[in-house]
Amino acid sequence: MPEKTKVLITVMTYPHPSKGYQEVICTAGITEAGEWIRLYPIDYRYQPKHRQFATFQWIEVELEKAPANKDNRPESYRPNLDSIQIIGEPLSTKSGWRERRDYIDPMPHQTIKEWKALHEKNKTSLGIVRPKRVLDLEIRPAEDEEWKPKWKALFSQPRLFGPQQKPLSKLPFTFHYIFECEDDDKPHSAMCEDWGLGVLFRKQAEQFGPDAAAKKVRKKYLNELCREDKDTRFFMGTRFPHNTWLVLGVFWPPKDQQQQLFG
Q: Is residue 25 within 8 Å of residue 237, measured between CB atoms?
């Protein structure tokens, strides 16, 4: 039976086409018990406005464990989309992001090496990394400039029920954080699939073109979100079934005074 659960949404990824849902995003958050949870699938842009939550906003939703043959990660649950209820406004970033840090700071922070070891042990697939140093945000050409033919065919079909078709641009680039962890001086590389990154690229591309848009993304997600005065963390998760670790979102509160002195 579905169980109602309160979830603080922390992660929303850029949409991807879906045969069953037109398009889907990967969403993750933290329960009242302080546990990570993944909500999938959600056709976010096709949901009515009263069910379109924001990051760092609490929702209540009925959940069922994802079938093991489709997703065996322990944090993965299937939401009843009709049951989504938004609770209050998104948590504030005032006072050094205190409201948000009250939930994020107590969560386990591990290195990439440690999260991979936990995945090998018990399939842990969500977690936070506080990088020792962020070296770069590499811009790489996407493997395919356009959606595959099966997705193009999907977009060309008229919808018989629900909202009308919404255009979904494919990003012509992928963006990869290059960073070091405390226990390994060899840099790691992880693709960033944050919803905000994709939205920023699309808006900038419409005005300045794709190459300039990619540079704008790099400026914000590297030079602003990973500045020396930011206590930057990466919300990370695995892509099923390949279990590649990705940056699903970025958390960038200001460093407190003690961190400024000794960080």
A: no
